[in-house]
């Protein structure tokens, strides 16, 4: 098994990636930029993420680095573009350069928002055409990995659903992307509240959701098999928000009569365009990784088990 460093391990997706990789038997170390305290579940190395050599010391002895850290603040990145550039592209360049120094393969988690949202089930070789700064910074960071890493892959994900591993109160509210949608819906209906599924031409309306543990499982497979290039870690079903809500009610045994449909509130809108259909085709990736895509009902079944048992449930 490989020794794999994870950046962004204190975050939503990175924590689950660390958990699943460790569960697969990989030797995991999270590169953190602050003291995370004694209760953190995986070994950590404190690094200065602004310094390549500090990152290289953190990567010493690692076969690979799963790079997930980002400045995750959509409004903030518009307010301070220089910091945003560094929090995405600069950081990715330093991680790649450090990985090249230590002979580590880079696995960069990217997003379906590198596309403009006019396609449907787009393949891995579709050229990106981002419509907002987040998508642009992710696409630019992808290029850093693809052009600069001695060994590396870009794994695009979208519609990520799951539990936060290290924060009791994980993100749980609907937003104009697909993230957190399912658990926000489940929580509202279980609390006896109604839930309004947003429908609007100016939000992310179609995606291929994936549960976060599956991202960890697929990353492990890519590292183990030495698969490089652009990968789509996509669920096997392209769904609208309405279809996802209905499937969630079926799988979690919830009353679909309590679901309403309507536009998002003005305060939820972002100060930039949002891609409409960001569904990804993942079949070629899955074939390269020796697995298959999983339907939305399989993804939601895994999420339900994750909620019930309190630990990640990978599918591959
Ligand atoms: N969530 C989704 O639905 C989704 C969808 C598509 C793609 N992704 C991708 O998945 C990755 C993880 O996203 P997430 O939702 O898990 O994010 P998140 O929960 O906001 O976590 C962000 C992580 O990045 C770290 N970080 C922030 N700024 C940093 C900096 N300047 N230098 C070093 N580390 C920094 C944070 O560390 P601290 O704890 O120290 O702040 C945290 O560990 C990202 O690359 C994102 O583009 C996510």
What does this structure look like?
- Helix 2 packs across helix 4 and helix 8 (241-252) crosses helix 10 (296-309).
- The mean pLDDT is 97.
- The chain has ten helices and 13 strands.
- The protein has a seven-stranded parallel beta sheet, with helices on both faces. It has a two-stranded parallel sheet with strand order 7-10. Strands 8-13 form a two-stranded parallel sheet.
- With 316 residues, it is an alpha/beta fold.
- It has helices at residues 12-23, 52-59, 74-79, 81-102, 133-148, 181-190, 212-225, 241-252, 283-288, 296-309; strands at 3-7, 27-32, 44-46, 64-67, 105-111, 152-157, 160-161, 195-198, 206-207, 210-211, 229-232, 239-240, 259-262.
- It has a single domain (3-309), classed as NAD(P)-binding Rossmann-like Domain (Rossmann fold, 3-Layer(aba) Sandwich), CATH 3.40.50.720.
- The two termini are 17 Å apart.
- Bound molecules: NADP nicotinamide-adenine-dinucleotide phosphate (NAP).
- NADP nicotinamide-adenine-dinucleotide phosphate (NAP) binds next to helix 1, helix 4 and strand 5.
